[in-house]
Amino acid sequence: MIMTARETSGTRTHLTVMPATGRNLEGPRLMQMNAIRATLAAALLTLAAPFTLARAEGETIKIGAVLPLTGGIAAFGMESKDGIELAVEEINAAGGVLGKKVEVLVEDDKGDPADTTNAVSKLINTDKVVALLGSVASSCTLAGAPVANSAKVPMVTHNSTNDKVTQVGEFIFRTCFIDSFQGATSAYVAAKIIKAKTAALITDVNSDYSKGLGEAFVAKFKELGGTITSEVSYQQNDVNFSSQLTKLKGTPADVVFIPGYYTEVALILKQAKQLKIGSVFLGADGWDDPKLLELAAEAADGTYIVTHYSPDQKSPEVEKLLKAYQAKFKRDPAVTDALAYDSMYVIADALKRAGKVDSLALRDALAATKDLKGATGTITINKERNADKAAIVLKVEGGKMKFVESVKP
Ligand code: PHE
Questions:
Q1: Domain of 19, in residue numbers
Q2: Which residues of 196-217 are buried (b: 16+ CB within 10 A; e: fewer)?
Q3: Into how many domains does the chain fold?
């Protein structure tokens, strides 16, 4: 069952969004149409049996994308989808890859690890994609990666930062830095920029991202001479943080580090402001979305964010992306837009060097990615299949995220 997201007369954008396996989001009419289509397709397949090889080779190169299009981190998923769509459009307009057009099949994992596992299996086994892009939350990518790795289909995540993600195996890559670096950078911001001597943490206990980032922060902050005053926790979808914040108020810290995602973080910041907690709040890439500013409003002012990208760090690639986003989406790209856009180019570049549409050849080519210039920096895949890129420090002032400095690994 395939629903084409954007199909204008004659021009297909080669981005297909599919409803999650086993469910029909389109109602009876489409179900009926699909039944007819399926019968027709089966009939055609029988007729065209001798040509299945040619068909499998196809006119398009199929890539699967697993993204949270709904749920608490949906903004990240929707932005990723836009970034991929723009990159695919540009790549195809420039002639495609290896003489073929690229087609991306998008599955919604809702930010839920179990859905990621299912989506990855479906894209590999049913849709026969040559590579996968995604997911966003580290817990999701960690759940999908073993499936891709044992099927020997390369999976490239644009922003899952937990250290363990690429340790799953030889077929798992990422185009961003990892949390030991992001956590250490956050600790540097706390100790050196904010000049904090004490820090408290609010961690999401069910998130691999949150736990790993929190641990990396604590280790580096202590190394820099700081003291951790308290650590409290929450779970995704929590809405009331008063008990945690009251506890933090009892043991005041110079900095409160929250390795979480924008939906909960926005609520925490608002409630902390109500409780008049005077600490400086600090977060990482999970905060970096226009949604945070929208949801937290002035409660976000004065906070610091460690992330992957800032439009203020001008480069020809950033200028090009800003222009293209205004033209196509009438908005500026957020960090996940930029990371997803770059990652699509990383896959296209590797496919070209692989010289054929083959997952094994593509894996080797991805591993050899070197000096690819993107909007989020220059991408070289290292021996651990990660990208060593600089981290960007932002400060929220007057409802805007402002560039503070860039920190090299
Ligand atoms: N780094 C986050 C994770 O691993 C995901 C993320 C990255 C979200 C960048 C937003 C922006 O879970």
A1: 3-57
A2: bebbbbbbbeebbbbbbbbbbb
A3: 3
